[in-house]
Structure formats: structure tokens, C-alpha cells
Design a protein that fits this description.
Radius of gyration: 24 Å
Low-confidence stretches: none
Shape: rod-shaped
Number of helices: 7
Mean pLDDT: 83
Order of helices and strands: HHHHHHH
Distance between the termini: 77 Å
Number of strands: 0
Structural class: mainly alpha
């Protein structure tokens, strides 16, 4: 499978739209010539679909001719936004959550912080003697 065919397949699978490859082959070729990859297309489509779901409507168009319009550099800006969101997204693992609870760090569930400073601990220890 060529890179153009894999871009076509990725677009069709993610958007659930069936487009004809011979018509869009030139657009996918330009897309690859600009240095983008199938993973970039997948990341941008996922980002746009998440944003559309979050906004309860179709704010961003998934049409291929507007998405791959390199004259206005829309794909570049969408890709940079998607990468920034992915980079800043903090994945919380169950082990990290347990460690945060053990350390007494505040959690996002609204529980009170029981951590005390070292000075407070020493003062209470000296007072108890």
C-alpha cells in the first residue's frame, strides 16, 4: 500500500466518508510533498472531531478540500494545536493517583489537603514533649 492509499484509507475510516481516490490523489500527493504523514492526518482529524463534539456542533469542517488547502496553511495550524494539546495532556495512572494520595497532595476530587509543613510537624512534636 502506498502512502497516498494509506492517507485515503485513514481519511475514509476516520470520517466515515467514502471519497474516490483517483479524484483526490493529487491532493494527497501535495499533502505528502509538504512533509506531512498519515499520523499527522490522523492526529488532526481526531483533534477536529473532538473539538466538534465538545462544541456540540460542526465548528470545524472535515471536508478534504478545506482541510488540505495549503494556500491558507490551515492544516499547519490545526496540527500545531493538536500537538500542543497532546503534549500538555497529563495522563494520570492509578499508581500516580495512589502516590499523590499517599503524599497528601490535593486531588481533583475536592478532598482536603492533609499535608503539613515540616515546621508544623516539629512544633507539634516539641509541644507534645
Amino acid at each position: 500500500m502506498t502512502a497516498i492509499e494509506s492517507c485515503h484509507q485513514c481519511y475514509c475510516q476516520m470520517t466515515h466518508m467514502e471519497i474516490r481516490l483517483p479524484i483526490w490523489e493529487r491532493a494527497f500527493s501535495d499533502f505528502l510533498e509538504h512533509g506531512f504523514t498519515v499520523e499527522d492526518l490522523q492526529m488532526v482529524l481526531g483533534y477536529l472531531m473532538r473539538e466538534n463534539r465538545r462544541m456540540n456542533g460542526a465548528k470545524f469542517s472535515l471536508r478534504l478540500n478545506t482541510l488540505l488547502d495549503f494556500e491558507y496553511r490551515r492544516f499547519d495550524s490545526f496540527l500545531s494545536e493538536a500537538k500542543a494539546i497532546q503534549r500538555n495532556k497529563r495522563v494520570t495512572k492509578p499508581a500516580d493517583k495512589a502516590l499523590d494520595e499517599w503524599r497528601g497532595l490535593p486531588t481533583k476530587t475536592g478532598t482536603d489537603n492533609t499535608a503539613r509543613t515540616a515546621g508544623d510537624v516539629l512544633r507539634s512534636a516539641v509541644k507534645d514533649l
